Amino acid sequence: MSNPKYEHIAEYLSGNLKGDELKAFEKKLKENADFAEEVRLYAEIEKSLSHRLSHQEEENELRHNLQRIAKEQTSIKTKSKVISLQRYSKWLVAASIALLVGIFVVQNQTPIYSDYASHATMNISVRGSSNGTLEKVQDAFNTKDYALAYTHLSRLSEYYKDNTELQLFYAISMIETEQYDLAKIVLTKIADGDSLFKNEALWYLGLNALKQNDLETCKTYLEQIPQETEEYEKAKSLLRKL
Amino acid sequence: MNNKEAHKDQRYIEALLRNDSKLLSEIYQKFAPKIRRYVLNNSGDADAAQDIIQETLVTIYHQAKEKGLVLTAPFDAYFFLLCKRRWLNVLKKRGQKEVTKIDENVSISDNVYEQAAETELYESRSVLFQSKLAEMGKACRELLEKAFAIKSMEKVAEALGISYAYARKKKSQCIGKLTQMVQASAVYQQLKSL
Q1: Which of A103, A115, B28, B79 has the most crowded Cβ, counting Cβ within 10 A?
Q2: What residues of chain B have any CB closer than 8 angstroms to a CB in chain A?
């Protein structure tokens, strides 16, 4: 079964063919076009498959990110359509509650962080990722084990420094573990960029201040959130109480 | 190919390589709506459009990573042409007639066609290689999958419980076999005559 032809090709391509054997091989390459084509194809196949199989994880991460971006953009589109209705119904609900409850409860109610700390569910695990760290992060985050989520994220964040969504979750786990200054640095970076998470970052900068009872700073962040964004309504209702 | 001057849109190619969310969002914002319209106008739905966009971007990523793709045409026209032709292929496979209701006629230069054709050829070839690998006998397939993913033949030999020398010899024979299978396939003959 042994066919030394392919062993020779492999040796030649890896630069291990020497002396007379190399000379004979090169001569054959020059004189025999079919052989030359076979060697070229052998090399192409090896390179192509080795590229594919060693970049599977990277490909999965890219796919995941693309899916997320696509989903986000369709949700932005549909949201802007229903927002006027939603706002209207919210006002109705708010108005009727105000009527029922009357004025006497409204005073003396300083908002607290925990009333607003309902975080989005983290859903960014990567299909087929080998080490599973992202899954661990996600499990920890979604079960509110923010300290563990933070530990994992601190290891991953350098690698994912362009992944704004992940950075945002990183910042949230910092707020939850009372690392306010760190959270502020990460969030400010997101808020200063123009990713889709810009406004969410402003919202969390506000919450970061709120959790430290710094109501004035909280206000200044919330006031920067533009209208017609998902965070605007939340911000408005919190601002009213501040 | 690498000595050509890159178009300023090369940054989108680099965004794919870096998985840069910000620039990738820009791609979706700027270029996806036109593709979505095209697919929707030609018997497709939003999900189909999304698939087309994603598969095209993944292909470009691979070509860039493996072959150092240098974009010399505007990304907009190149990307749209690729997505459009990919969708037409889907329709063809479904046996549907190619009825293009709307063809957004941006003026497409030869350069764009060339670049798109290069990407398509790249994809066809890698898909062919992968499908032939999948057709191989279990022994070769497992050895090659390990060898390509792990790279170090020492580790491959260890994982398979064979000697290093034998693993290397087997690897070259299996790639040789694969090369023959590719050469014998009708698809390869077609691609060669392109």
Answers
A1: B79
A2: 16, 18-22, 24-25, 28-29, 32, 46, 50, 53-54, 57-58, 61-62, 65-66, 125-126, 129-130, 133, 144-145, 147-149, 151, 168-169, 171-173, 175-176, 178-179, 182-183
